[in-house]
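Summary for the steering committee. One of the milestones for this cycle was to obtain a three-dimensional model of the protein with zinc ion bound, which we needed before selecting residues for the alanine scan. The sequence and ligand used are listed below.
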Amino acid sequence: MNLPDQISHLWTQVLGLIGKVVSPDWGSVIGLLPVLLLIGVIGPLVSVLALVWFYYFMRRPRTRIRFVDGPRLAAIASDGLPLFPAGEPYDLRTGLIYPPGTSQNDAGDLLSVTCPMCGIARFADVTTCTNCGLVLKVDGRVALRTLQPVGPPPGGAAAA
Ligand SMILES: [Zn+2]
């Protein structure tokens, strides 16, 4: 088969396809439905999924950095006051909770922190609790991990 023959063969196929669309032979149209469905539905769907995937992976690192490093808004209790978790610096005025180790907000105002041991609030730049003497390390993640076993051991109070 030489090239002109191939072209005319292809042309016959194209004409046949156009003929099916222009003067529909319903059997062939229904036969084409899966193809049309594939192009009309699956195609855009795959494009949207690709866009979502792209958007998600492009945005995720930035979102994560903001979550770890930035302040977050405190949850509001039923009495309307913000709930500040013990051991994490917070700004009472804005209701923001700052990452452990932070002692000032963006404006340079001192943050407060609630002692995880006795619940007394103090300035976040003070590492030792003046009430119970618990030392809150500046590195928050280490502090939170070492703080966990500080409470009475299970059954310890009963044994004492
Ligand atoms: Zn304390």
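Key point for the committee: The two ends are 99 Å apart (CA to CA).
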